Fold each of these.
Amino acid sequence: MHYKTHTCGELRLEHAGQTVTLAGWVHRRRDHGGVIFVDLRDRFGITQVVFNPAHLSAETFALAESLRNEYVIQVVGDVVKRPEGMANPKLATGEIEVVANKLTVLNPSKTPPFVINDDTQELDEALRLRYRYLDLRRERMMRNLIIRHRFVKFIRDYLDARGFIEVETPILFKSTPEGAREYLVPSRLHPGRFYALPQSPQQLKQLLMVAGVERYFQIARCFRDEDQRADRQPEFTQLDMEMSFVDQNDVLEVVEGLLTAFTEQFAELHGKHLMFKPFPRLSYEEVMERFGRDKPDLRYGMELFDVSAAMRGTSFAPFQAAHVKGLVAPGCAHFTRRQTDELTEFAKRNGARGLVVLWHDADGYRASGAGAKLSDAEKQAIMRISGSKPGDLVLLAADDDRMKLNEALGELRHELGLRLKLGDPDALAFAWIVDFPMFSYDETEKRWVANHHLFTAPRDEDLEFLETDPARVRGKQYDLVCNGYEVAGGSIRIHRRDVQERVMRLLGLSMEEAYQKFGHMLEAFEYGAPPHGGIAPGIDRLTMLYAGAPNLREVIAFPKNQQAADTMLGIPSPVSEKQLQELHIRIVTEEEALERLTK
RNA sequence: GGAGGCGUGGUGUAGAGGCCUAACACGCUGCCCUGUCAAGGCAGAGAUCGCGGGUUCGAAUCCCGUCGCUUCCGCCA
């Protein structure tokens, strides 16, 4: 027996005259005394059901009167064209209605803690998460789930058609020394030993390349025990990919092709469009100079400008530094001193020494503050180079450390972009960031550290600087950014033993240590590892962008809150003494733990 | 670990030392109503203002502490 012959989203004029059975939730009920309308909802849509006493027994009509929101019901009725002028253009099924002649209440419902049939109202998220199964019933959340499904389905089809195969890798993995904090899983069979949940299948996918898979992908769950952000969850999903016999360009083209195709083919679903086609490729150096951030929001300009040369020899003390740069906040000349002070504070928090503000009025820069102290020639130079116009606000900063200056202004640019809503909410500004510096010097530990991971290949032309000038070595490493988010990151890997050894030597890693930590990798690489590389786009972040959602929780069915907890499930939860015993685990207080450590 | 924001009937908000016997909208309950689709009308129930302490003649309102949620910094090879 089937509960329904049709979904609540599929009936049209052509079905008029048919007798159908529908089942779903009471979305809304309009009781006119004599006639009752019920908007019946299932995942596929909403259909108006009419209960008319003329066509019903008294008992059935009474039952219809007892219906409340979110009751689960089944209705048998006739599809009829709505009377003239009564069609509802807001509903896909709005030309017809179902005149009920039989009603079954499959399950009543308590009054929900919040309304399901209106998702325009903002709700306390703690409440939503506590009743996530109700929250997900709301149209917006259901739509997000559908966008995510379409995206993942598209990925599988797209990559399958291009010779990729999906291979699953273990969730019970190995604790790795570097990188993010891991979730540990105690072993029952091996007292005192642990599995670790993977931060990503990085090493395993490289081993799959050694295995000859050549084109691998996986919709892979990853785990990181770090503090949460709006765009960071303790468990998240990556499109993990790796390819053999490829260079950087091959990897970029596959991902760019996939995202371009999905964006364009499903424009009607998500309503977003590409800002750039093809995606621009910017070097790390260029992006830091122009935007001050390695994940810039490119939906708007507001680029940093450089007036260092023009300010050389200035008598204005704040600009007596090696580098003077700034940006133009369009149409912000109305900002009050209080507002610009706030921006100055923001810039300082992000490493700027201060912020110099110029108000561009109808007749040039206002003669107050810096505007009074800079010479006319200096002001003219700033106006020419910045291109500021009357009504704009010019913000400048100076520093001897150029990268620090870029970063401070970059964060300021990003903040202003958000506040002024400069980005088109329907645009996706994808861009590749390439040629990242491979190493940076850790001042506190007095040693070179890898910016990505130690299997990242250096650019061929930079190999010669590996020993002489490590800061100059750029990697075959790339990020995909979109609207201010990093949405993918990857690299071409080292496949030659000699290069790998040189990198490890630079990082102060002896072969002995390296074998201890990564022996399984190094050993595998000695059995004919092909040249290979890969990338891992973040499924959650991309879905968030397609859904136009403000955080990851909106596109994850059952997310964790900021404390990495789930209040609906009540996790993390305590476990029984017996379970702990089996796992050879004893809970100790912080004091006891400290005591053991110091002994 | 640190900084900011928020916490008032079921939900979303208003209130900023006495106007509060806490208001409004939605929801909920009952009654009326045969063409609505955010239905409409009438009536009603529902809040120890997150919690604890303090200041004051008087606290939702001010102060201190605490808890919860959230955003950001640190952290995320």
Amino acid sequence: MAVTIKDVARKANVSISTVSRVINDSKPVSDEIRQRVLKVIEELGYTPNPVARSLVMKKSQLIGVIVPNISNYFIGEMLNGVEEIGKMYNYDILLCNSYGELEQELKYLSLLKSKQVEGIIFMTWNLKKEHKEFLEKIDIPVVMINRNTSDINIPSVCIDHFGAAYEMTNYLINKGHKKIALIRTGIGNDAFGVDQYKGYTKALKEHNIEIDESLIKNGDFKLEKAYDSVVEMIKNNNLPTAIFATSDYMAIGAMNALIDNGFKVPDDVSVVGFNDIKLASMYRPKLTTIKQPIYDIGAVAIRIIIKKIKGEEEDKTLFVLPHELIERDSCRSLV
Amino acid sequence: MAVTIKDVARKANVSISTVSRVINDSKPVSDEIRQRVLKVIEELGYTPNPVARSLVMKKSQLIGVIVPNISNYFIGEMLNGVEEIGKMYNYDILLCNSYGELEQELKYLSLLKSKQVEGIIFMTWNLKKEHKEFLEKIDIPVVMINRNTSDINIPSVCIDHFGAAYEMTNYLINKGHKKIALIRTGIGNDAFGVDQYKGYTKALKEHNIEIDESLIKNGDFKLEKAYDSVVEMIKNNNLPTAIFATSDYMAIGAMNALIDNGFKVPDDVSVVGFNDIKLASMYRPKLTTIKQPIYDIGAVAIRIIIKKIKGEEEDKTLFVLPHELIERDSCRSLV
DNA sequence: TTGTAAGCGTTATCAG
DNA sequence: CTGATAACGCTTACAA
């Protein structure tokens, strides 16, 4: 059996309260006794039982994280940020993988609550009504990642998707592209797909380029659908000079479709992405893309949680981090 | 305040033990009372406090996982397996990211123990003496991933690296390659790099191909070093007809070096990898590689832990899962 | 079948 | 400054 506070107290000839005091520095203890207790603790190799501690303090030092898929670079890197900052503040991460399924997500949300986690970082592809209902009455801090949560009172950390898409589209236009396809994601209001779309159309309009609906495709963050969309464009003889995919995976899918059909990137068609996952610089040609500060997104998310736990209320609901356009080799200049 | 077992007992007009019995099915309870209690539980929305439960049961329902880096496909996918099976058995995952640093790993190992986790899945790039000392005296189940643990008494789940490398080398030879470079990893005894090396040399010897040390490079799982190794080969005019990299990332690094220097894969040089990470089929040309059952590795690892927790001793120490050679487009036949 | 009461290892309150 | 002692919410002998 592990050694408990009692063992220490007995061996040091003091009461357990005294031991508790020295391990917590909570109340003054005479130096002599403190030393004695410390020595016994050392000898016995005593470590306080965090479970017992949690029970009385009603704190678990646990933060729950729900993600749709761990083996995804964006999510993994965000998790790195969460984990590192969490550990700095002595919080552990309880990991839940929802596979993006509503039912799982709801289940985990209540599971985490029942596990007494002190906060939840919740990442989902689609923020549904059911989520919102739950989130609105939950009494522990929750923060979301890259969702538009302005209608519910949940903080969210993200980048300026509108601005980023606007910037990227302008970049393309400045390179002489006029026929620019958009493979986008997140049609829902909670997602930033709509903001990206607005950024794209705004840039186009400002340059008097007409919006061609046949060049706007819906994707799902993954390669396959983007691949198929491009194959379709090829079949329809409706290839643009540039493709803007709002996720790097989709951009890769687009490039693969092009390459597999004998086109060259960027010589025949330019392709740009969004996120700057590791892969973006590993693929050939290296992908021009929008860099999201992924690690920082995770770090900021958990910082918000910790602040809320400490009772420091933040009134902001959207935490917007800076992005950056990373110019690499997948876009060709037409001018 | 959350509702407790007492509240339920009071409202249902029974003792707390009775409530405990119905929620645990531990002892017979008359049907009438059971219904009554269940109803109250429902009404009050009661969920047992797992912290209190852990305290008395001395079980946390927590399994600690230490990995060197979350944003890595292999690790993420393994984690998917761990998480999914863990949840099936009602275990939660406490995630620790060590960045592969010895000190962090040691810290987490004891942290997890003090957190009363019931088992630990420990993944590291290098299994050092310090780890072994710790692991030898720890009294909770630990399992490792892809390490050769035959000298300590810790189970490890892996594939047959010797066989896989042998198979791949033979594949290359059968395609007519004779000048085959090896970019390998894990020189230590705990790692399977040595086994892979043996598989490679065995195949070569069996075909009377002399081993050319100038074609054997040490890598570190990452792209950069492999990239540099290949650049060096190019500079030295010592390019083989095929490169076997023992990680897909390194294979990509090798291909990038080739492509960036004007060579074509596989037309000029063939490249094959190891692991079959997602990227392997996303890159162009698609990478021929050895597929490790990554998800299953995680799943098996946690199953072993759970079995050990239940006291079902396993005497095996190496759990070898099947691998598969996946033939794609990065290798050309010379015959 | 049900209830009483003794823990589990801490922290916190209140006397001394 | 120090020590009893009552919680925290739950499980589990032991009694009834």
